[in-house]
Design a protein that fits this description.
Number of strands: 7
Strand content: 25-35%
Oligomer: single chain
Order of helices and strands: EEEHEHEEHEH
Largest sheet: 4 strands, antiparallel
Number of domains: 1
Length: 207
């Protein structure tokens, strides 16, 4: 599996390289008055499954892809950002486990638009992860985060890492009900007296 995925040789932080494919598509409807184009995450592909790249292309550098049939006339285009690392960390094994437990394990990509270029500005993928926790932190920070399903070999690679490093936290033992403090109907501490009542209740008549 490691050879098939082109995994790095560092067992503490295994990693693979992927290419992020972003799609630019025209905006339709009333929103087109303010925004002509929008970018969406189209795919994340293991680097070894991509076609050969032009020479001297650096990691994360945008590469325009040949348009598929009908894309050019529709105004849609795809751009590839290759050789981005996806690294696994032992201290985030729970985040990978939660991803595997989802109905469709996925890649998450945090990306931003280039500050220059106006309407023609290209997206800039920042980080690719398989961690549920990473994605949650980025969303909390108001970052752009999109997801796509991870292919089978990547899911198997991730599952092997989780099996080796994920240790579920032990469940805390529930306190038995018999040891719970007693309270009255107002939530105040209640007490129980086992002593016998002295004297006769008020109003009781003797024989």
């Amino acid at each position: 599996m490691a050879q098939h995925m082109n995994e790095t040789t560092n067992p503490a932080r295994p990693a693979i390289e992927v290419g992020v494919v972003m799609r630019r598509e025209p905006v339709t409807g009333p929103m087109s008055r303010w925004q002509r184009w929008r970018w969406v995450l189209a795919d994340v592909v293991p680097q070894q499954d991509l076609p050969p790249l032009p020479p001297k292309v650096h990691a994360g550098e945008a590469v325009a892809l040949e348009p598929a049939e009908g894309e050019a006339s529709a105004g849609t285009s795809h751009w590839l950002f290759p050789r981005l690392p996806v690294t696994l960390y032992r201290d985030d094994a729970e985040g990978y486990y939660l991803n595997l437990e989802s109905p469709s394990p996925c890649f998450w990509v945090m990306w931003r638009l280039a500050e220059e270029g106006g309407e023609e500005a290209l997206p800039e993928p920042q980080v690719v992860t398989l961690s549920y926790h990473d994605a949650g932190r980025w969303l909390d920070a108001q970052e752009r985060v999109d997801q796509v399903p991870a292919p089978g070999p990547v899911v198997e690679w991730l599952a092997a890492f989780v099996q080796a490093h994920y240790v579920p936290e032990p469940k805390r033992r529930k306190r038995p009900d018999s040891f719970q403090p007693l309270t009255d109907r107002f939530g105040n501490p209640a007490s129980i007296s086992t002593g016998k009542t002295r004297g006769r209740p008020e109003g009781e008549r003797g024989e």
